[in-house]
Amino acid sequence: MEFTAKQIADMIGGRVEGDEQAKINTFAKIEEGKKGAISFLSNPKYTPYIYETESSVVLINEDVELTQPVSCTLIRVKNAYESVAKLLQLYASMMPKKTGIDPLAFVSKSAKIGENVYIAPFAYIGDNVTIGDGSRIFPHVTIYDGCKIGKNVTIHAGSVIGADGFGFAPNQEGYEKIPQIGIVIIEDDVEIGANTCVDRSTMGQTVIHKGVKLDNLIQVAHNCEIGENTVMSAQVGLAGSTKIGAWCMVGGQAGFSGHIHIADKTFIGAQSGVISNTKGNGEQLIGSPAIDPKIFFKAAAVTKRLPDMYKELAALRKEIEELKKTK
Amino acid sequence: MEFTAKQIADMIGGRVEGDEQAKINTFAKIEEGKKGAISFLSNPKYTPYIYETESSVVLINEDVELTQPVSCTLIRVKNAYESVAKLLQLYASMMPKKTGIDPLAFVSKSAKIGENVYIAPFAYIGDNVTIGDGSRIFPHVTIYDGCKIGKNVTIHAGSVIGADGFGFAPNQEGYEKIPQIGIVIIEDDVEIGANTCVDRSTMGQTVIHKGVKLDNLIQVAHNCEIGENTVMSAQVGLAGSTKIGAWCMVGGQAGFSGHIHIADKTFIGAQSGVISNTKGNGEQLIGSPAIDPKIFFKAAAVTKRLPDMYKELAALRKEIEELKKTK
Amino acid sequence: MEFTAKQIADMIGGRVEGDEQAKINTFAKIEEGKKGAISFLSNPKYTPYIYETESSVVLINEDVELTQPVSCTLIRVKNAYESVAKLLQLYASMMPKKTGIDPLAFVSKSAKIGENVYIAPFAYIGDNVTIGDGSRIFPHVTIYDGCKIGKNVTIHAGSVIGADGFGFAPNQEGYEKIPQIGIVIIEDDVEIGANTCVDRSTMGQTVIHKGVKLDNLIQVAHNCEIGENTVMSAQVGLAGSTKIGAWCMVGGQAGFSGHIHIADKTFIGAQSGVISNTKGNGEQLIGSPAIDPKIFFKAAAVTKRLPDMYKELAALRKEIEELKKTK
After folding, report:
1. Which residues of A are less than 8 Å from C237 in CB distance?
2. d(CA B37, CA B23)
3. Which of A149, A175, C104, C128 could be joined to A131 by an S-S link, Cβ 3.0–4.6 Å?
4. Does the beta-carbon distance from A156 to C158 stay under 8 Å?
5. What mean pLDDT do residues C31-42 have?
6. Is the backbone peptide bond immediately before B48 cis, with ω within 30 degrees of 0?
7. Quick check: B327 pLDDT over 80?
């Protein structure tokens, strides 16, 4: 398919600067531009590339002032990132989509599968599992018995939903397993990355609420609950029974202790270790144990000087002792 | 199935306070209680729920004093957590269990499989693998050639036993692979979570001893050894040839350098980085590099004040210089 | 197969000290030596074992001076570690290798598979995927549509190549998915461990260059690029669009922010958090945020004394106030 700059601008409500008839038939990153491609400029770090890109058309924010002439055609928009997202969605919606239950999938006879569901080869859907309309289950996903998957849910390859929570009671000879008889509930519009694990509850349910987005290799332990529209980057880990609020953002490799509550709209930096309840909505935290980011980064800067501080402290002590003597 | 409070109390050696004929047919968390359910109260944080739970029966420790009347029937026991574990085990033992080798599993002809083993669809059991009686292998588990799995072992979905250890020798053009010709031995009564990896040894064996419990997404590198009844939370990582003692507890996301020895009964906090041998049994460690938890948490508290300390140090220096001058 | 010490020495250019006719038929670690086995001594920590090993033959560096007599036969070589690697390679090259596409694998009709490729049971090879000659794809690997795998690539069990990058744009009601229409390119001679994830690019490609070695459970986000011959230990995480140079070494559980550039030959310690571009080739970094290792370890040593420093600072303040008064 081929479109002109004018056609694209009309689709996304933009304004053309340059050749309205410039033709594009593919996407490219601005730094890897080529003739016939459309690129976008959103992150200011990439601004220098606009002067040398070979892409035919570039989406750019209305308010960006360019200091040199450019050879590409520009489409001015309010938010270049949103516009490219919209274009990619249009593009993706025109691509053929896989649907249906692949004959190489395992789907228990007692599972209830909605309409327009895709279940890939080697996906495993256990007994009494329900999967809502429009959901897509990729290869090597395991959904253990009894778990409930909502509508328009995407689960990428290798993720495991509903394995036993990690519960053992010590006795004299070793540990006895505490049976995990609960389930996992994944609500509508959730997307789960690859090789992520969401454990079933000891009793009751582990719940991933509507619109949550989990990246790859994340651990969600038994009895956890993640609030609506919270997003978590890769390799995050939640210990048991922790509840995360709605609209939170969690950076990669962050970890949460068990049995704590994180308020709505909390922002947790990458590699943080959160060990207690947060105070209220909108808080930001980073570090392990996690603290206010302003303090964290200031303290990190001073940390480098700690050995010098230690020496200076000893020097001051000595000088004070001198002063006392000579007083 | 339905039981009365009296029947349950008799099963676990408890004493009924309230209606001995109260009927229960399911389990529920105390904060999600409902008529006909039995709950338990073990963590004091949850005590307030006992006054409002709708569960018909609640297991509670003998020594807990309640300050208000409750509408549920109580069963007083020595240890509510152990009692609920016992009840869950009784319940689980009455549930039908999957057994046998699923026709959709791949089991090499040279593998030796014990009695009462369950091998799920899409499990892969390589050449010359042995699996002991009563073990359960869930979907998408891979067991590479030659690995030995003991009795009553559970391996959850997606875990990989016996992939090559990470061994490469640099040369001028790149890295040459060091073949990994050893195996993995998993002893009896081990439980391994989902998407965990235990690498085969370069030569000899990587060993997970009897009764070890590993959570999800854990990395155990080549030539490691984990002692009896040690438990590790999710996302822990062990570098090559490290030996962990028996009865240790390791918190989530902790990491261990290679070629170190951890003594028995060591307690390693979440997100710790352990880079050297530990001193002796019963030690506690946290932080990266890992140190005594008392020092760690005191230092963490002071760290927040580091920028102020830095300023104060400069102020003191100035004042001392003044004092010297005016002396 | 059985070889004499003399035959082995001739293969690897070594010199026999002891019985040239000593027979060996297997490998063993020096601390687990047995009659008929060949071991090696490379790490000086293991030197004491050479006096008590039961192995028949031990490979040892030319320059190691032994202080007591040994009962085993020695083969003196320049580099014992390289020599044992060479022997293991010889041994491995004599073992039968699995080849061909297993009938239990799923390979799309539009995929292009090279010569001498092994594709294991339950591997999933999507549409328009290409796999170069001599590559080996283990069980439960998923390669999404359109990804390109080079020659002599090894991908261990459960790894996922080409799942969607983690891209979502927030709106009033939740997040909209940004379609990920790019691909993953894995160049020749790459080895990828078990349960590792390499996400496809939003547009363009995520690239793992020639000779890279990735361990288990690693996360490589969309649009990343990893330079030639870089090695990464288990559980490392890269956020989106980050570029790692060639010949870097990255320790386990380290994390990288998005959109940063790491120069060639950079050495990143385990559990580091790298949040900005590095300065130049050959730099070493550790900690979170990552700094010079010398400063890091000095500061870590002082950190333990922080509570004492805090008290000392208050004491000095008090004494100075006293001095001022009495001046």
Report:
1. 217, 234-235, 252-253
2. 8
3. A149
4. no
5. 93
6. no
7. no
C172 touches chain A (CB under 8 A): no
The answer to whether residues A133 and A117 touch, using CB atoms and an 8 Å cutoff, is: yes
Cα A264 from Cα A279, distance rounded (Å): 10
pLDDT of residue C281: 85
The 10 Å CB-count burial string (b at 16+, else e) for A61-90 is beeeeeeeeeebbbbbbeebbbbbbbbbee
d(CA A128, CA A131): 10
Mean pLDDT of A200-206: 94
Of B106, B179, B295, the CB nearest to C121: B106
Q: Rounded distance, CA A2 to CA B47, Å?
A: 66
Beta partners for residue A17, in sequence order: A74
- Is C169 close to A81, i.e. CB distance below 8 A? yes
Q: What angle do CA C170, C171, C176 make, to 5 degrees?
A: 60
pLDDT at C290 over 80: yes
Tokens of C22: 């000593």
Question: Could you tell me if B269 and B250 are in contact, meaning their C-beta atoms sit under 8 angstroms apart?
Answer: no
The residues in B 61-90 lying below 8 A from A, measured between CB atoms, are: 81-82, 84-85, 88-89
Q: What phi and psi, each to the nearest 5 degrees, are found at residue A208? A: -110, 110
Q: Which two tokens stand for residue B6?
A: 């009296």
pLDDT of residue A325: 86
For residue B142, the chain C residues in CB contact (below 8 A) are 138-140, 157-158, 194
State the Cα–Cα distance between residues A226 and B187, nearest whole angstrom: 36
With bands split at pLDDT 50, 70 and 90, how would you rate the model's confidence at B94? confident
ipTM of the assembly? 0.93
Say whether C166 and A213 touch across the interface (CB within 8 A): yes
Burial bucket for residue B239 (CB in 10 Å: 0-12, 13-18, 19+) = buried
Q: Give, for C306, the enclosing helix (H) or strand (E).
A: helix C306-326
In chain C, which residue's Cα lies nearest the Cα of B169? C82
Question: What's residue C107's pLDDT?
Answer: 98
CA C210/CA C223 separation, integer angstroms = 17
Q: Which A positions 111-150 lie with beta carbon below 8 A of chain C? A: 120-122, 138-140
Structure tokens at A280: 């209220």
Which C residues, 269 through 308, put their C-beta within 8 Å of a C-beta on chain B?
Answer: 270-271, 300, 303-304, 306-307
Ordered alpha helix ranges (H), chain B: 5-12, 80-94, 293-303, 306-326
Cβ(B27)–Cβ(B86) under 8 Å?
Answer: no
How would you classify the pairing of strands A26-27 and A37-41? parallel
- Residues 6 or more apart in contact with residue C113 via CB below 8 angstroms: C101, C107, C119, C125, C130, C131
For the stretch A138-144, contacts whose Cβ atoms lie closer than 8 Å and that sit 24 or more positions apart, written own/partner, are A138/A194, A138/C142, A138/C163, A139/C106, A139/C124, A139/C142, A140/B122, A140/B140, A140/B158, A140/C122, A140/C124, A140/C140, A140/C142, A140/C158, A140/C160, A142/B138, A142/B139, A142/B140, A142/B157, A142/B158, A142/B194, A144/A184, A144/A200, A144/B157
B1: contact with A, CB 8 A cutoff? no
Position A79, amino acid: N
Per annotation, catalytic residue among C140, C222, C259, C261: C222
The continuous run of DSSP H or E covering A273 comes out as strand A273-274
Task: Tell me whether residues C106 and A139 touch, CB distance under 8 A.
Answer: yes
- The gap from C-alpha B315 to its chain's centroid, in whole angstroms, comes to 49
- What is the percent of chain B with per-residue pLDDT over 90, rounded to a whole number? 87
3-state secondary structure of A226: strand
- Average predicted confidence (pLDDT) for chain A: 95
Listed in sequence order, the DSSP H helices in chain A are 5-12, 80-94, 293-303, 306-326
Nearest residue, CB atoms, B216 vs list A177, A219, A302: A219
In this complex, is the C-beta atom of B191 within 8 Å of any C-beta atom belonging to chain A?
Answer: yes
Of the pLDDT bands very low, low, confident and very high (cuts 50, 70, 90), residue C327 is low
The burial class, CB within 10 Å (0-12 / 13-18 / 19+), for B45 is exposed
